[in-house]
Amino acid sequence: MKKITIGIIAHVDSGKTTLSEAMLYLSGAIRKYGRVDKGESFLDNDEMERRRGITIYSKQARFTYGSTEFVLIDTPGHADFSAEMERSLQVLDYAVLLISASDGIKGQTETLWKMLAEYELPAFVFFNKMDQDGADRVVLFNSFKKSFTSDLVDFTAGKKEDIYDAAAMCSEEAMECYLETGEIPVEMMQQLILDRKMFPCFFGHALEREIQPDNPFRRPAAAEKTMGTRGVKELLDALDSYTLMPDYPEEFGARAYKILRENDGSRLTFVKITGGRLKNKTVLPDGDGQSKINQIRYYSGSRFSTKETAEAGDICALAGLKESFAGQGFGIEEESVLPLMVPILNYRVLLPAGEDPVRVLPYFKILEEENPELTVAWDEEHNEISVCVMGDVQLEILTNLVKERFDLAVTFDSGEVMYKETISQPVVGVGHFEPLRHYAEVHLLMEPLPAGSGLIFETNVRTDMLAMNWQRLILTHLEERQHRGVLTGAPITDMRISVIGGKAHLKHTEGGDFRQAVYRAVRQGLMMTSNVLLEPYYRFSLEVPTGSVGRALNDLDRIHAQFGMPELNEAKGTSVIKGRAAVSALKNYPREIAAYTQGQGSVTMVNDGYDVCRNAEDVILNKGYDPQADLRNTPDSVFCSHGAGVVIPYDQVYDYMHLSLDGTEENSTSFEIDEEAAKRRHEKRERSLGTEEIDAIIASISRSGNKEEQKKGWKRRGSRSGRSGSTGTEGSGTGTAAAAAAGSRAVKNPAPSYPVFSMEEADYIVVDGYNVIFAWENLTDLARTNIDSARDALIDELSLLKSMVSGKVMAVFDAYRVKGHATENTVLQDVQIVYTGAEETADQYIEKFTNSREKKSRIVVVTSDHLEQVITRGQGCMLVSSRDLRARIDYLSSRMKERYNIK
Question: SS3 sequence, 258-304?
Answer without folding.
Answer: EEEECCCCCEEEEEEEEECEEECCCEEEECCEEEECCEEEEEECCEE
